[in-house]
Write the structure tokens for this entry.
Amino acid sequence: MTNDELSQTLDTTDEWITERTGIRERRIGGTAKSLGVLAGQRALDDAAVDARDVDFLLLATTTPDRITPATAPVIAHELGMHCPAMDINAACSGFMYAVRTAYGLLETGSKRILVIGSENLSRWVDWSDRNMAVLLADGAGATVIEYDPTENDLLSFSLGAEGADADLLTCEHGGFFQMDGKEVFRRAVRVVVDSAEKAMTLAGVSADDLALVIPHQANIRIIQAACQRLNIEMERAVVVLDRLGNTSSASIPLAYGDARANDRIHKGDYALLTGFGAGMTWASAVVRWSK
Ligand code: UT7
């Protein structure tokens, strides 16, 4: 759905949306399950891993298909998996929270984990509310994380949550997403910069060592402001929000999928993954690319 299509029914323009957010078009459709199955299968194929050899499925989603059961077991069944499966909801930080959880599981006996971020945000958008309708979209991304006794490529994490700010971005049962955009923007830049610096320090890398920054895709101005404060040129930031909008916990895996498809990241490269969202939650990690 393009900005022009949106402006046919909303009091907005392509110019406003592009200038204020960087978004030009977004994908609408699917469910957390259907998109998650698609992304999960592609990740398994890409990693040449049989579904039966995965011993945990973690699904990051803000928009599960039902309150219960969780969507993860349903996806696991569709993919032919016979393993524990659960949803994780940390809003737009969800994928990084799931990766952090996967790391803990790998440290305690799991061998191979499928992590999916899948969102059906459009279902919870009031399409007459220009504040949210221009931002949110549907999508999914996934990754396979394997235990390697000789090498750890998940170098560091810095996660947090500040529940005092929970009312800044909400969606009540049966309601729609609502946000104090300006305040979320301000806090987003602050927590991204702070957690990114902590993750880099913990990993023993500097901003100059990073091949890529793979940020949550909410607003190009947030990415620009954070990169500027971290002394990282925008050329090293992955941006897919122009084509995909804000897909919450799907946005980071979609961004690094795009980076891989465009040959922007290679084995041994350091990357900073960083997200923030409702909660308010945030999560940064430094990883060394292993494939
Ligand atoms: O995924 C995690 C969480 N989400 C985010 O990180 C989003 C964070 N926030 C943002 O990205 C930005 O705050 C927004 C994109 C939501 C809004 O951008 P802004 O630059 O903060 O705009 P604003 O709310 O200050 O509005 C500026 C003007 C206002 O008009 P006046 O009062 O100056 O006359 C708004 O009424 O733009 C108007 N406006 C719009 N105009 C056209 C607000 N939304 C729209 C719109 N189309 N969609």
In short: The mean pLDDT is 97. Residues 141 and 254 are 5 Å apart (CA to CA).
